[in-house]
Amino acid sequence: MVEGCAVASVLGMLEREAAARVRVEGLRDEVARMAEVLEAAEIELDRRVIAREELVEALAVSAAGTTAVPGAEKEAAPSVAPVPGSTVPPWRDGLPVTVLAPDYQRILGVLEQRRSAGHGPLRAKEITVELGLGPTPAKVEAVRSKARRLAERGWLLLQTSGAFSAGRRLEAVPDAGSSG
Length: 180
Fold this sequence. Notes:
Blueprint: H1 2-67, H2 72-75, H3 102-116, H4 124-130, H5 137-152, E1 156-158, E2 164-166
Antiparallel strand pairs: 1-2
Helix pairs in contact: 1-5, 3-5, 4-5
């Protein structure tokens, strides 16, 4: 009978091992599924942040257009530190990089370092990697959106290939020189 108990005990151990293996595989599948859900949620969050930034920017432009005093833009220089999610002002001569939110400053810094090292432009995914962010689609899209915003405002150059480089457009503010 002792021999029968040993066989039953070994069979029980094998069954428990198999059950543990099935449980681990099930948990791995659940983790993979949750990672997909997390990535989708991050993409949605990034889109909503971008939408909010665009709305704030549009409202600021609208408010600035209704309360603008001729000649006042030369006197009004931003004196407070920018906050994340703040608007990107159009580049103009003498405007310091410090008026930009930290994320925008970091993007400019990466591209300035690249230019000073004699290298060419970078795509959004490459900028994301240089910033130390994971190259997930959500992070890449957030960086691309910010880099495009910088390019639209004259802080960066957007190549026809979709890559970004440090530099300034010759005319950063449309109609800035027209008087009439």
